[in-house]
Amino acid sequence: MLNTILKKEKLIPGMTSKLVIDAPLIAAKAKPGNFVILRVCDKGERIPLTIADVDAAAGTISIVYLVLGKTTAHLETLGEGDAIHDLCGPLGKATEIHKIGTVICVGGGTGIAAMHHIAKGHHLAGNHVVAIIGARNKDLLLFYKELSAFCPEVLVTTDDGSFGRKGLVTETLVDRLKSDPSVAEVVAVGPVPMMQAVANATKPFNVKTTVSLNSIMVDGVGMCGACRVSIGGKVKFACVDGPEFDGHEVDFGELRARLTAFKPQEAISYEEFKKSHGCN
Amino acid sequence: MAATNPEKKKARKVVKPRVEMPLQPAEERVHNFSEVATGYTHEMALEEASRCLQCKKPKCVQGCPVEVPIKDFITAFLKEGVEAAYRVIKSTNSLPAVCGRVCPQETQCEGSCLLGLKAQPVAIGRLERYIADKYMALSACEELTGKPECRLIDPDLKVACIGSGPSSLTAAGYLAARGIKVTLFEALHELGGVLIYGIPEFRLPKSIVRREIEALRELHVDLLPNYVIGKTVEVKELFEQGYKAAFIGVGAGLPRFLGIPGESLIGVFSANEYLTRVNLGRAYDFPNFDTPIFPGKHVAVFGGGNVAMDSARTALRLGAESVRIVYRRTREEMPARHEEVEHAHEEGVIFECLYGPIEFLGDERGFLRGMNLQKMCLGEPDASGRCAPVCVEGETCTMECDLAVVAVGTGPNRVLLEATPELNLSKRGYIVTNPDTGETSIPNVYAGGDIVTGAATVISAMGAGRRAAKEIAKRLLGKADVI
């Protein structure tokens, strides 16, 4: 049935899950970089989530989320056999993928899942994909296995050194760029501070840097401008002009501020949900 | 001597005043989202209808974009009652309950009413609304066509209507009532387009829109929300799936911003975002509904159209202490319906006319805290025929506000257009159609409503939907006499 969750994998218990959803129409069209907008219930909010993987033959898409507020907490209560109330996509512009040589794909936190789909696209296009992924510790690291399946290099960093190199993804990235001048592009998906740090780190190397922006969205089809971001001084809508942009042009400060717009309301909503555990 | 000219005698007769529309008192209604105008009683409607002069050549009909036989429906109402009148209206207008509420009657039918020369015109919109609300449809077919029976659906005669606003709803209803299988595709999760996400509950109750959608469902129209044509499926694929024709009514929903410094501060919203959160997301009932809205103490709304009025009145209802409409011209030049300006004024919206925005001012956290404004005066008429606003050099001021809504117009929705490069577009980016048939540069693909004209009225969108549907029906059913 449409939008049914066929498989649920708890990647980090209570925090992050992967859902494989029956969505043949979306799966037939979804490309790396695309996202969906979903609602979990009739009174729910529309939220965007990047598509982490697609199986067009099976007619499924995968999404990975971090439980951050009411909608994702509610999503986490759903199990296999349950259906997503509303699911719309694939939205946004697909990643520009050409055969260009070596591409470094950097992912942080839940962003690793979204980055996975882009990395896969580059791999299928014949590029040499280097994945650099980071998390606070080993238990919070996502998609190591999935990326290792096709990336000739998967470089891991953790804050506490429990897996891979101790430190930040940017340190590994800079080392890799120093040792390999042939890198054609760097892609970064993750928390805004991480993407900003990556863009800052790649600037001296003058390497094309693509980031995927996670601004607040309402309709997701270009009708409200909630997701507007400043790119090279020009206003763009992340939903229809993006979500991927040139990292060296993004006003990250503005994006960080705009992401806080509804913090108090988000907290109220989450508290209400904890009391009721469902659609109010 | 010759007898007194009866016409002259009639003209001297004192014209009865127009029957006022009962309203929720302003001080009450600013605290709720229920409909402001509560509607005529039967007696009121009869009294108002009796004011009609029954002109031999009714000018009101010419003033109506879909030429509702106004004189005839008023006669039918007075002589035969609601049901007969409803049928007359429905012969050309598929959404009378909507139009009676949101049409700019003062520039259309009522603006052409002869009574208006000496007194107030007949309240045609209010009568239309009364009749539409009162009439309880026996069936969907009856509701849509005024006829008791609709032809059976031929499953192979499939037409796709893209978007579910007034033009598409009209096209879908027209086609389905004539035995054509229709699928209605909508990008959002709820059907109705601008009638749902744009026009607030207090001006157009959602139940009215839902009634129209339900009628389509009864006529076996397939309703597909969360379906973005140009993303989920492309126009040309619809033909591969067996659709014989497509009608594009995706509207003009791309918000225009002012393009001034500070516009990305938190608290600056496009009217579309603000209204979509409140109307589609029911943010007025947060946290019962999840979609949040920024509360706003001192609100500034930019623009002078219906959307600006809707935004300002929404802000009042959400509890703002002060709401100001900032407009570069004067109240006379505002494109909004007079009634909406009047209602906004009664509710306490402050009109800061002859001011233009220069800059949004923010605090260190990126939140809006005020505005710099430029004093304007009226100059010579511009291309729109209205006096152009001109800056008064050196006269600027600062205004405190923590929420601003930009309601200065919209552009064409881009998703479908970008995915369908074969469509011929105008310089302004709207779809070019054959004015007689509504057909686009792609054979059997039609378009109508705001995506062709740019932001306009519900009624003109309906007119376009009807025109295209008529052509589609004519071609599919092979008859020249499809009405």
Describe the structure.
- The complex is a heterodimer of chains A (280) and B (483).
- By secondary structure, chain A is an alpha/beta fold.
- Helix content of chain A is 29%, strand content 31%.
- Chain A is built from 9 helices and 15 strands.
- In chain A, the strands form 3 sheets. A 7-stranded mixed beta sheet of chain A has the order 10-9-8-7-11-12-15, with helices on both faces. In chain A, strands 1-2-5-4-3-6 form a 6-stranded antiparallel beta sheet. In chain A, strands 13-14 form a two-stranded antiparallel ribbon.
- In chain A, a hairpin with a 2-residue loop joins β13 and β14.
- Chain B is of the alpha/beta class.
- In chain B, 35% of the residues lie in helices and 18% in strands.
- Chain B is built from 21 helices and 15 strands.
- In chain B, α6 packs across α10 (124-134), α16 (271-279) crosses α17 (306-317) and α17 runs parallel beside α18 (338-347).
- The radius of gyration of chain B is 23 Å and the shape is globular.
- The model of chain B has no long low-confidence stretch (mean pLDDT 91).
- The chains are: A alpha/beta (280), B alpha/beta (483).
- At the A-B interface, α1, β6, α8 and α9 of A face β5 and α16 of B.
